[in-house]
Design goal:
Blueprint (H helix, E strand, L loop, with lengths): L4 E7 L10 E9 L2 E11 L4 E2 L4 E2 L4 H26 L6 H9 L7 H14 L7 H22 L11 H14 L4 H20 L25 H8 L7 H15 L3 H5 L6 E4 L2 E7 L6 E5 L2 H10 L14 H14 L8 H13 L6 H8 L4 H7 L4 H18 L2 H8 L1
Antiparallel strand pairs: 1-2, 2-3, 4-5, 6-7, 7-8
Length: about 400
């Protein structure tokens, strides 16, 4: 498509100078976008010809001003040609900056990398490694998207618009083959970085304005009582596979997440009223959690409890590696579901607590959630729970409407 590049000189009549002259402005228009800049020239408004964008008449003063305007036009056109030949997606703002000699502009990927580096330095202090890896992943996808779509190494913040946001979202889903919720997580991360850029004055507008992001409800996998029993009965030799199985089962009975199981030490195992409890602060939310240990998790603890109070009880490898081993364990136990370490947390919320009649408020506290709506995502109504509730309802209804009343109705 042919670019509509134009330069227009006009008078800024609403800001006359004290001597009665009026400043001459230059307007750069390209593909419907425009910027203004000062020429640092002024003229008697009565001698200005709006049709030609020049000083009318003849004379040394008029000729000198017109030569200066011609020189300004030539330099602006030269800046445009240079940017165009460099393969840039040229904008009026870029032409103006080149004309004014502004060589460095804040760019998206440069800012994103700096954000990630600052985030990395806070990992283990107030930031998590998992979130850091998420930002790195999004930045990597952005780099590939910009190179593929714009044929550039970076984009100026002034170039970002809704089309950029829409295009990147489509790229993540279609070309990177990411599922809807993964794409949603990536877009939320990008939106956060752009919000930080706006707060620092690097970005003057919101490319996400009017762009709606939605997640998709996903049914949470959990193990039922029979599947937990089969997992526990697996004959496994001592080693990494047995460690992963035991840590997973421990999580099924306590609701602790992978990272909290990894960081669990003897100091967090407390005796209270003759009972054994886990007392810790959740790494993800900072919420205080107290979970009583029943017979199964206590037996697992006795197998792994170290002598050093500060040494982790479960020296687990990485989460991805553990999930690979859990796939093997699930297959060996005849479990066809996709099982990850997080499945244990769902199992605790569903099979171990909700199905046993524990109130949703109590489950929320045990899981360390700050918002009960988060707990409701885990809390799936199982068939056994539904059957029990309907039996109780049936007894109440039958008491209200005895057989005699039913017999009368049927006569």
């Amino acid at each position: 498509m042919r670019s509509t590049f134009r330069i227009l000189f006009y008078l800024k009549r609403n800001a006359p100078l004290k001597n009665g002259r009026v400043p001459i402005m230059a307007r750069i228009t390209l593909d419907g976008q425009r910027v203004q800049l000062s020429t640092h020239l002024s003229v008697n408004p009565e001698t200005w010809c709006a049709a030609t964008g020049q000083v009318a008449g003849r004379g040394r003063c008029a000729d000198q001003t017109n030569r200066q305007l011609a020189d300004i036009r030539f330099r602006i056109e030269q800046c445009y040609r240079t940017l165009f030949l460099n393969g840039s997606a040229v904008t009026p703002a870029m032409i103006k900056e080149a004309y004014l000699g502004i060589t460095h502009r804040e760019c998206l990927l440069e800012f994103f990398r700096r954000h990630n580096e600052e985030f990395r330095r806070m990992v283990g202090v107030s930031r998590s490694a998992t979130t850091y890896n998420k930002y790195r992943c999004v930045c990597h996808h952005l780099e590939r998207y910009v190179r593929q779509t714009y044929r550039r190494d970076d984009l100026a913040f002034s170039e970002l618009d809704k089309g950029f946001v829409t295009g990147f979202h489509a790229y993540i889903v279609q070309q990177c083959s990411r599922k809807k919720n993964t794409a949603w997580i990536y877009m939320i991360a990008l939106k956060h970085v752009l919000m930080v850029a706006r707060s620092k004055g690097c970005l003057t507008h919101d490319p996400f304005a009017g762009y709606k992001l939605h997640s998709e409800f996903v049914s949470r996998n959990y193990l039922n009582e029979a599947e937990i029993s089969r997992m526990m009965r697996l004959e496994l030799p001592s080693g990494a596979l047995r460690l992963v199985r035991d840590a997973f089962v421990f999580s099924c009975f306590t609701g602790l997440s992978y990272v909290d199981v990894c960081n669990l030490t003897r100091r967090q195992i407390q005796q209270n009223g003759g009972q054994t409890w886990v007392d810790l602060t959740r790494r993800k939310t900072g919420a205080e959690v107290s979970v009583r240990l029943f017979a199964v998790p206590q037996a697992i603890l006795r197998r792994y409890l170290p002598a050093d109070c500060d040494e982790p009880i479960f020296g687990l490898p990485g989460n991805g590696w553990c999930n690979k081993r859990l796939e093997q364990l699930a297959a060996a136990a005849g479990i066809s579901k996709r099982v990850t370490f997080h499945t244990a947390r769902h199992t605790f919320a569903t099979t171990m607590t909700l199905s046993q009649g524990v109130a949703i408020e109590t489950i929320s506290k045990l899981l360390g959630h700050k918002n009960i709506r988060t707990t409701q995502i885990y809390a799936v109504i199982t068939h056994s729970t539904l059957d029990g509730e309907m039996n109780r309802l049936s007894r109440r209804i039958d008491a209200l409407y005895p057989q005699a009343a039913v017999a009368e109705l049927c006569e």
